[in-house]
Amino acid sequence: MNFPPLNEQLDLITRHTVEIIPIDDLERKLARSIATKTPLKIKLGADPSRPDLHLGHTVVLRKLRDFQELGHTAILIIGDFTAMIGDPSGKSKTRPQLTFEETRKNGQSYLDQASKVLDGQKMVVRYNSEWLGNMSFADVIRLASKYTVARMLERDDFTNRYKAGEPISIHELLYPLAQAMDSVALENDVELGGTDQKFNLLVGRDIQREYGIGTSADTTPQVCITLPLLEGTDGVQKMSKSLDNYIGFNDPPREMYQRMLNVPDSLMMKYASYTGVLSPSDFAHFSRLEKENPREAKHFLSEKTVAFFHDAESATREREAAENIAQGGVPEDIDEIFIEENSVALIDALVKAKTATSKSDARRLVEQGGVSVDDEKVTDAKAIVTLTGSAARVVKVGKRKFFRLKRK
To answer: Which residues in the chain land under pLDDT 70?
Structure first.
């Protein structure tokens, strides 16, 4: 296979990365790949602790796609085995462990969603239970002997928890070693991850070396490439479903569009650059808009994001709905919630419409002035919404969520 020239490959690979450790090794690997016409093996590990992907995941998936487009082999590791341990990275306490069945179910969902960014036809998918599940206790002891507790405690989250007197379970210390065994099993040339995965990636490099991989005269262990973490819609913390500051791959078109509109203006260029939802010509257009008309730039990026994960028709429809909302109107295709009686408690209606996660959440929304019925703000958490005949009532939650209440 003929690969692009070295400099051309490096230009694409280094774009939007934080660190390449070490870049000299990457250059040597690429040069050897070109000379031998052999693709590099690029690994991305994903623990399916949750079944849903969000835009934060696009950053590293997009980089894996870059390698695919250069002709290299993209290997997506579904960590069905390591997910039962749970990566403590960035966590202040032990994660709950999942069952094997849960990890497999989440893994399939992860794979389906990742294919929206990656070329599924050119992707190698492996489950790390293939090799980790076959390790004996003697194998685990042998692996553990290759790394010290002192080095493990260099990891920031372990260090912080140790100093704070927070418990650290032994199985958590095994997680980086288990992930490293993925690199041993695959003998991959490069591993990708967010900046919060740097420690794990470097352990993989060390353990490959311990098992004799990349130690010959003309080879090196895996190169570690870290990518930036994408802040969520709050503009502060990294995107996370648990923080409700995420935009999910599987979000309905309206919710995706409206969540995009909530992204701070200061982050729009980062979203446009790192998520990969814009073509080069679209990115050039966005860059001009971002300077000349930030509001239009935000709508443009929101529309293109919906089109990327759904379709152009949905994107156009949501753009029109957003413009209607901005002018004080109500979208035509909002959800309709049917009730049996002539009246219903407002907080019950909010929960039924899934615009509140619980009655206490609904009560808070009402008392804070975030709910109106037929354009009239309601602040009484005990309010009752009455329906007359076949007439519907329109409930607005926040700035952009609506639903209609109707009698059955």
So the answer is: 86-97, 328, 389-390
* 197, 74: one domain: yes
Identify the domain containing residue 351 by its residue range.
Answer: 335-407
363-393 as b/e: b if 16+ CB within 10 A = bebbeeebbbbeeeebeebeeebebeeeeeb
- Are 190 and 287 part of one and the same domain? no
Where residue 394 sits, what CATH number does that domain have? 3.10.290.10
> Are residues 93 and 206 located together in one domain of the fold?
yes
Judge if 341 and 285 occupy the same domain: no
Mark whether 68 and 181 lie in a shared domain.
Answer: yes
Q: Which among 3, 89, 5, 94 has a CA at the least distance from the CA of 47?
A: 89
Residue 102 is assigned to a structural domain of this protein: yes
Residue 234 lies in a domain: no
Please enumerate in sequence order all residues whose Cβ is within 8 A of that of 190, keeping only pairs 6 or more positions apart, or say none. 26, 29, 40, 41, 42, 43, 67, 222, 223, 224, 225
Token pair, residue 77, equals 């590791």
Q: CA of 44: how far to CAs of 30, 55, 59, in Å?
A: 18, 16, 12
Question: How many Cα atoms sit within 13 Å of 151 on the Cβ side?
Answer: 14
The whole-number pLDDT of residue 95 equals 54
Contact indicator for 112, 123 with CB cutoff of 8 Å: no
CB 190 within 8 A of CB 26: yes
Place of tokens 């490439």: 225
- DSSP letter string, 77-98: EE-TTGGGT---TT-SSPPPPP
User: What pTM does this model have?
Assistant: 0.81
Q: How far apart are CA 315 and CA 253, in angstroms?
A: 7
Give me the pLDDT at residue 92, please: 47
pLDDT of residue 52: 81
In a domain, residue 238? The reply is: no
The pLDDT value recorded for residue 63 is 96
Phi, psi of 338 (to 5 degrees): -105, 140
Number of helical (H) and strand (E) elements in the chain, helices listed first: 17, 13
- Tokens 């939650």: give the residue: 397
Beta-bridge partners for 225: 20, 192
Residue of 174, 183, 189, 186 whose CA lies nearest to 143? 174
Residue 1: the pLDDT is: 75
